[in-house]
Structures are given as structure tokens and as C-alpha cells.
Specification:
With 365 residues, this protein is α+β, with helices and mostly antiparallel strands. The longest helix has 23 residues. It starts with a helix and ends with a helix. The chain is 17% helix and 21% strand. It contains six helices and 15 strands. The structure holds 2-acetamido-2-deoxy-beta-D-glucopyranose (2 copies). The site of one 2-acetamido-2-deoxy-beta-D-glucopyranose (NAG) has 6 residues, from loops.
Amino acid sequence: MFPTVSLISVSVALASVVWAQTFPATPLASKSFPWPTGVPYQADTENLVRGRQTGYNICNSTTQNQDSLCQTSFINSIDDFCIWGPKDPNSVVGDTEGEAVAWCSKPGHGGRLIPEGTLKGLQWTRTPDYVQIVGHIDQTRINMAAGDFGGEMDPHGADLRGNPIGGLVYSNGWSGNNDSYTQVIEWHNFVGNNFFCFKACDPSKTNAAAFCEHTLDRIGCAYNAPNNAQEGVFEACQGENQDFPGVYTVNGVATTYRQPPESLGAITTMPYTARVPASSNCVTYSSAEIFAALASVSPDASVTPSSSSGTASTSQPTSSAPSSRAGTSSGTAAGAIETGNGADIVVMSGIVTTLGVVFSALFLS
Ligand SMILES: *[C@@H]1O[C@H](CO)[C@@H](O)[C@H](O)[C@H]1NC(C)=O
Ligand SMILES: *[C@@H]1O[C@H](CO)[C@@H](O)[C@H](O)[C@H]1NC(C)=O
């Protein structure tokens, strides 16, 4: 009996060590930092398996430059938002999501400015439970490699430190006062295939976590943030809520889609097409007017453009067929969006193996 018992204790101890090295004491999504006075220099101060937080959360006029490592993002309106993108040119999101930095549409947030020519069409939507911005982009101009199918950023991640690690998001969208910000607890930002979607769920609403679902990282914007964004159109709309990502109804029966494990290979078929909710009261804008401050901002000199003309890659759906996005930019092998992070996977299987030893020991005893 003794050897078995000590094997159990050793295994439990090992498991706790692995746990401690991987997970923060408090998950990022459980941390509350009122803006501006409660924002710390770094939301994540630990040095765990994925290392330390790359940048900082206190962002100001000193940090506002094209090398900024600001990791505080804002999602306020069609002309005022920051999306997450790589810090170094020609990066693959799946390899760098833990270190993404804020790329902003306006000066004043202490992050990098989105270079001129990046934003090619946007739809801002405000619904009862969330605000969302979706758009066509030239992703190379915010440091993504041409052709990268991208990934998902959210405040969870396999190790609960978020992607980016320590990334914080705020919005003035629910306070009724442009100077009063709410910390967005549940959000997701997919970027890849020259497309992005960023949804921030109102933390005062019961279903914030469901609308900002974070586990469907391989099926992209068409399933996580169905929308009507069109290339060449910049519009702000009101809208109905989407269905919860992954939940679909056939013949009156609601079903929940479960993303298959990566070991089963690429996702080549989907059992449903996500319903695009109705939008209304759309107001269109001139991008030259609302993004005047970006006109003089160039991408990093070492960026490899997506093509000689600088336009979006051919995998991008055209504006005339928004529904075809389900089969192109996401949801299929052609555009499956996957955040595969080698470090996470290794860490997680380490834990599973260790716990496996614990369980076999228990079983044998
Ligand atoms: C500006 O932000 C930097 C980086 O977070 C910080 O070190 C510095 O103290 C800030 N400056 C002010 C005046 O808050
Ligand atoms: C608040 O921001 C919105 C969006 O930028 C703008 O349209 C509105 O005029 C602002 N309100 C005030 C009072 O500044």
C-alpha cells in the first residue's frame, strides 16, 4: 500500500506544480480594473509557462507611437476602436496571439495607429447585449503575414491569462457618457483572411459570456459574429442580437455545435449556417472623414504587402455575397480560423499526463 500512496502524493504534487506554472492565481477574466485610475501597469504580473505579459496596460501620449506595446484596447464607435494585432511585421497570429498589441483607429488611446489603407469596409453594430465592429482589412498593414488565416483573441485562452496575455478592453458604449468607461469582461476578436470581427458584451447583461463565446476558435467571424460588413462601406447600425455562437435551431429544436478536436484534422463541413441578425437605422460614413487622422500613418517599412496593388487577398469574399463568407473566410477548410498555440497544447497535455498517472494510481490502489 505505501508505494501506491506515495505515488499518489508525488503525482498530486507534480500536478500542482504544473498547475501553478501554467495558471495565474486569478484568471484574467476575473480581474476588475476600473478605468482610468484602477488600471495597473500590467494586468498580469506573473512569469508562467508562457512567460510574462509583453506590454503594458497604462497607455498614454508617451506610449502612442508605432512601436507601442499598449495592451489596453477600446471599442467605442465606428470611428473609435482598437483591434489586436501582432507587434512585429509579417507575423502569424497563431504564433503571436499572446503578445498582440492594440492598433487603434484614433489617437488618444496610447496604442499604435492603424495605417492608412488598412480598413476597407466596416460595420459597427449596437444590439441590446453587445457592441460589435467587423471589417474587411489589409491585414499585412497591421503586421500580419499575407495569407495568415489568423486566430482568436479573448480574455481566456487555455491558461486563463488571455490572448494577449493581460489584454484589457474598455468601452464607453453603455455609460451614456463618452468619458465614462466600462471594463469589458467578455469579448472576442477574430482576425485573419483580411477580415476581423471584434465583439464586446455588455457586462451588466446575464448572457455576456454566451454572446462572447470563446471556445469556437476555429470557425471564425461567420459563426462567432455573423454580420453584414461589406467592402467599401463604412456603416454604423443598430441590430438584433445574434444567436449565441454555436447554438442553432432546426425545426424548432435548439442544438449546440461542439468544435471537434484539432487531432481530427481541418473542419471541412459545418452542420449549419449561422443566422445573420437584422440590422437597422444604418448610417454610412466616409472613411476619409472619420479616419482623417490615419491618412499619414504608414505601415512598418519591413511589412511584406499582400500584393503589388496592396489590395486584399483573393480568399476574401466580395461585398455582393456576404453569406458566402460562411464558406470562405471561416467555417471551412478554406478559411478555418485556428489559434493553435504550441505552448498551450504542450502544457495541457503535460497536465493530462500527470493527472493520468494520479488516476491510474488510484485505480490500482
Ligand atoms: C505612460 O505610460 C507608461 C507605460 O505604461 C508609464 O510607464 C508612464 O508612467 C505613463 N505616464 C504617465 C504620466 O502616466
Ligand atoms: C460621443 O461619441 C460619439 C461617437 O464618436 C459621438 O457621435 C458623440 O457626438 C459623442 N458625444 C459627445 C457628447 O461628445
